[in-house]
Desiccation-related protein PCC13-62 (Capsicum baccatum), 280 residues
Amino acid sequence: MILVYFILLVFLQLSSNSANNQNFENYVGCDMPKSDVDLVEFSLNLEYLEAEFFLWVSLGYDLDKFAPELADSGLPPIGAQIAKLSPLIRDVITQFEYQEVGHLRAIKDAITGFPRLLLNLSRESFVTVMDDAFGHPLKTPFDAYANDINYLLASYVIPYVGLTGYVGANPRLQSSTAKRLVAGLFEVESCQDAVLRALLYERRKERVELYGITVAEFTNRISKLRNKLGRHEIKDEGLNVEPKEILRIVYESGKENKLGGFYPKGAEGWIAKSYLRHGD
């Protein structure tokens, strides 16, 4: 237990230092080729999702109260709520929330971007994910906000998709400005993923309340579902991920042009919209 807490402190400190050391103000007004702008813009979809998920769970409100300029008069999320967490887990998620708000600022300082899009963070969204992961409805609908373990499992669904997306995007970026920005985002997301995995690993043999299924089995099922939806065998290995594979996962449909899941009206930006226009 002491070792895990030490790891948490180290990773949170490293990720916070990384965010602080990035001179994001220098990005304002820098020129990027359109392809770089499109890739950076695509990341806003995931950063809005993470920021609102962590904000609501840790503080009980959204960007409209915390940083309304970043919400930019966008639609409020559906079904988000505060979770029943222990002090330690709530503090960890609060640190994540500050980092994600910093990511939004960094991106919107670099490009125009778009207002917060409609997000579905209701319990029902996570019920669908978990039922799909096990291939049948669980005997009791999964409540992502019920306790530490449920929330950590719900968090395991989302941030890793963004992390692997940054790995896939980085080689395609052309400008040094975009590369520095995405590298900074990737570093912090990596630290967050490591913290989540450490917390879940510590509890791997515990049985999730109401289900009699171990934490380890839940994470295995979630990973297999991501691979299935993304139609790519190595999604959880951290290798190249195409934006369309990310959309297949977060839409929970297995198709980049079939809206739903966490994005009821679809993702925003030129890349996301292009799959709808061309039906690819």
Notes: The first strand starts at residue 207 and ends at 208.
